[in-house]
Amino acid sequence: MKTSLSAIILLATQITTAGAHDVSGERVYETKGTKVTPVYKHELPGIPGKSIKGVLVEYEPGGFNASHTHAKSALIYATVLEGAVLSGINGGEVKTFTAGQNFTELPGDQHDVSANASKTEPAKLLAVFVVDTDEKILTIPLKP
To answer: Homologous superfamily of 5-141 in CATH?
Structure first.
């Protein structure tokens, strides 16, 4: 049986080995060894109703997140800052991205696999979201 994984969880204040939480503290979905920290938020000037939000994703060795999608309006540009990250979108090939490399998720994409590629070294990525300002639920876990 194939296990789906994921990397980007928006608006979680902290993710631990026990599970993910949104800003209200409610459980979102299972994850292992990943911490997500919102680091930037700003409404886009001249584009009413749109905002940009930055999220730092830190993976412990072997860390991963559950498979998910994002808000229907979300366009995501992720850059690996440290280490190597595995990413697979829409049932496609799982690719390894290393420090300085990036990938994009388009509105409606399913992020199947996102994990630290290493069992011994940490990894970090910065995910930048362009999203409708009024979106409250930005990460939707997929049911197994």
So the answer is: Jelly Rolls (2.60.120.10)
Q: Which CA distances in Å does 36 have to 5, 22, 26?
A: 15, 10, 15
Residues 6+ apart with CB under 8 A from 72: 107, 108
The string of pLDDT tens digits covering residues 76-111 is 999 999 999 999 999 999 999 999 999 999 999 999
Share of the chain above pLDDT 90, in %: 54
Q: From the centroid of its chain, how far is CA 118?
A: 18
- Provide DSSP, 22-60: -TT--B---EEEEEEEEEEEEEPTTSTTEEEEEEEEEEE
Cα dist. 53→39, 57, 68, 129, 130 in Å?
A: 8, 13, 18, 5, 7
Q: Which residue has the tokens 């290393």?
A: 98
Domain coordinates of the chain in residue numbers? Answer: 5-141
Taking alpha carbons only, the member of 35, 41, 37, 76 closest to residue 55 is 37
